TrEMBL record:
It holds the Pfam family TsaD. It is found in: Mitochondrion. Its main location: mitochondrion. It is an enzyme of class 2 (transferase). It catalyses: L-threonylcarbamoyladenylate + adenosine(37) in tRNA = N(6)-L-threonylcarbamoyladenosine(37) in tRNA + AMP + H(+). One of its GO terms (molecular function) is metal ion binding. It comes from Leucopsar rothschildi (Bali myna). It comes from the Eukaryota. Keywords: Acyltransferase, Metal-binding, Mitochondrion, Transferase, Transit peptide, tRNA processing. CDD domains: ASKHA_NBD_OSGEPL1_QRI7_euk. Its EC number is 2.3.1.234. NCBIfam families: gcp_kae1 (TIGR00329), T6A_TsaD_YgjD (TIGR03723). This is N(6)-L-threonylcarbamoyladenine synthase. Residues 57-362 form the Gcp-like domain. The gene is Osgepl1. The lineage of its organism: Eukaryota, Metazoa, Chordata, Craniata, Vertebrata.
Amino acid sequence: MKSIARSVLQSVKHGRAAWLRNSSAYSGKQRFRRLVLGIETSCDDTGAAVVDEAGCVLGEALHCQKEVHLQTGGIIPVVAQQLHRENIDQVVQEALRASGVSVAELAAVATTVKPGLALSLGVGLQYSLSLVSRHQKPFIPIHHMEAHALTIRLTHHLEFPFLVLLISGGHCLLAVAQGVSDFLLLGQSIDIAPGDMLDKVARRLSLRKHPECHSMAGGKAIEHLAQTGNQELLTFPLPMQQYRNCNFSFSGLQNLVNNAIAQKEKEEGIQEGEILSCVNDVAAAVQHAVTVHIIQKTYRAMLFCIKNSILPSKNAILVVSGGVASNQYIRKGLQNLAEANDFALLCPPPRLCTDNGVMIAWNGIERLRAGLGVLHNAAGIRYEPRAPLGIDISKRVEEESIKVPKLKKIRWLA
């Protein structure tokens, strides 16, 4: 029990509360459950965690690169790579120390190998392969999107199947989770992700110069300013209205927003780089357009799944995860959509919506229990910057041409 006390004390010291699936204390008996170390380096954060089969997070650590990338105006792959290299060993060792677990006690090491930034993925994979080779441990390669989708099963006792909406700075997709490694892909972004678009709009608005937003990431700054903005000042045509599918598009919307910003700058007689007097209204209008687009596509996914008996017609589940899932305006719209269609909306806590080692370790636990993708010889394993999730049935969705009712009928932001 001394190791458990050390784990708790170190967790408090570093400002991280242990995340327990059960409210009961961690017992000596539980110590014999299998443990997985998860390592995450798919983009700009270096994360590691040790999780057991009961869903107990024994120790975790995260090095966030946000401040560096805010200064450079976005994620520069070679910079992200170097920061991962500098921090990965420290992060992994911190997670192990907090857990009170040695590498020898691990059942396996799980690491993100797809999709993501190639240079970032390479750092995590190289480190992990060295670790498993040195300690003769099984290796579990993890699909980043699968990990996001299954995180909800760490925090909730949730059975398959369920509908998943993953929205982040790098991804946007709708899928049905039918099993640990069994997904049906309903649709995805054909260009950029919503978080990426919001970050780019924030840079175009020069929100780093705004006194309320100088330390905020772009999407968070948009959400903050939108709270006091009038979304009706500007209206933007919604993307892909002519296509009855579940695919998303945000690059065209971004271009429309950039043109509108340039027009407002001209009207106010200011140069690019100066703050518009109507910046709160622009933020509100942009956030609203992104939200409506996401909700419309999610609505069609719900109708398709019910119509084809992929999900139960009563008490179906919508899981929303990824960094953009922390946006409260978007979440409120999805909550009302879910309630209007007899779905329950479930979201992991905000700290597990963004990239972290916990979700990777938990995905490793899920795969270990199911006996899926556990490698006792990791020779030849490669990272994959692009990797689809599951079986793509998006064409079938489009062929059914399901019309989405007017959103006003569900009072989606009432």
